[in-house]
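To close the section, here is one more complete example, presented without commentary so you can practise reading it yourself. The ligand is 4'-phosphopantetheine.
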Amino acid sequence: MASGARKPVIAVYPGSFDPVTNGHLDLIERGAMIFDQLIVAVARNLEKDPLFPVKERVEMLQAVTYEWENVQVDVFDGLLMNYARDQNARVVLRGIRAVSDYEYELQMAMMNRKIVPEIETIFMLPGEAYSFLSSRLVKELARLGGPIKGLVPPLVEERLRAKVG
Ligand code: PNS
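Output:
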């Protein structure tokens, strides 16, 4: 049997978070219950043009995650796996909502495993109430004046309305 204290398990939860939704929050809560430390890592350079600059994406995440002591918000540039290794992470956490997410996530997880084999990608399922929710759809709804209440935290709803309303 292995001896000595177990090392704390650090997980990185990467994403665009443009903006954070209640689906992301659901996953953060689940991750925070399982891992010793959860770093929510906001990708600075996105191929897609973000609606919110990275500073605002981070501010919103910090505001809505402050109650979890083992959750931190950070920004990363470049390769996710280089960042995760620098943070001494053992895990990359990703959410899978539906079968449609699986193919992309599988490709990314396999590629990431090739880059740093020691870091495991772990998938978690958000609550079923969020299985249809995405930042992209929330932004589209907000632009078109649709209902976004209950899909994002109130602070994000305010900022979205101010941005596109
Ligand atoms: O929220 P998203 O847009 O699904 O997040 C995708 C993200 C940011 C996690 C992914 O694009 C990523 O890891 N980007 C960093 C660059 C990188 O490491 N690319 C190689 C992926 S195999």
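Once you have examined the tokens, check your reading against these statements. Residues 14-16, 43, 79-80, 108, 111-112 surround 4'-phosphopantetheine (CB under 6 Å). The two ends are 60 Å apart (CA to CA).
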